[in-house]
Amino acid sequence: MKSDLTLLLFNIMGIDFGMDVAPVKAMEHVEGLLSAKSGIVWFHEKIDLPRTPVVYDFPRALRIETGKKPFHLIIDNPRDMPLVIPIGKIKPFPVLVEQFLHATPLWAIYPIKERILLLVDPLKMGR
Amino acid sequence: MCNTEKEPSKTQLILEAVRNNPGDAMDPEIREETLDLVIFTMTQRYFAFKGRDVREILPFSPITEVPGCPRTIRGIINVRGTIESVINLHTLLEMDDVPVSPTTRFILGRSGELLSGIQVEHVADVISIKADRIKPVISTLPPAIRDYAHGGEELYKGHYVIVLSVDKILKKLSI
Description:
The structure holds 2 protein chains of 2 kinds.
Chain A: E1 4-12, E2 15-20, E3 24-29, E4 40-42, H1 43-46, E5 59-64, E6 71-76, E7 83-86, H2 95-98, E8 106-112, E9 115-120
Parallel strand pairs in A: 2-9, 4-6
Antiparallel strand pairs in A: 1-2, 1-7, 3-5, 5-6, 8-9
Chain B: H1 10-20, H2 22-25, H3 28-31, E1 34-42, E2 45-50, E3 54-59, E4 73-79, E5 82-87, H4 89-92, E6 105-111, E7 114-120, E8 122-130, H5 143-146, E9 149-156, E10 159-164, H6 166-173
Parallel strand pairs in B: 2-10, 5-7
Antiparallel strand pairs in B: 1-2, 1-8, 3-6, 4-5, 6-7, 9-10
């Protein structure tokens, strides 16, 4: 097993997220996809964000191929440069929090200085 | 008449009684258990946790909200590299929430293996009292507070202090 993980970082409604870049095949503008009738997943449809309405400031579509049907995941504010992190620094959620996340794509935490990245499993983001 | 069986002496009787009930022979000052309490305030009410249920008191630091958690969990914080949850005590006790201020603190509470931050408005003091001063809580308290209360009494500067149970709070939030 590799000892590091390359993350795509993005921020939605003030919360920092990180996602394994391996199944992300492309990043595209959203405008050309909105007329498509299927294969599009908005991030907030899978992650129940604490504040609504959810506003996307700079939405981008990630083309994700997981071995099942490819889909586009719409996220917000992606950072240009991916971040390589050592797997040994990834931490599980605290017990009181983890119990509520079994059915969600959130799977772990990566602390960066004062910030905390919530790690999202792209394989659980598809329909 | 001569009694062949020797009767126990008075001192032996006393010693035997002491051995059977050692608590009665202790100095009352030593026997009275003392208890440390961490006193804090929430919307102008005084509360406390038992000191043995508190690992430390932390200054406020930014909380990362975690989608999918109930409102009773504010989110997570980074405590010197360890990630801890933060409980929303206002919501749990059905009190109006208040904005973060310079006096806001996290009390890191523990119950067995469970550990969590609990956000409070102001930590007033840490006091030591005799354990038997804590009485059952008054019946006029809101049910949401009574559910988590261990007891209460006028314990701090003439204020009625509600002693909350960290154990009850953490167990309530564990599914």
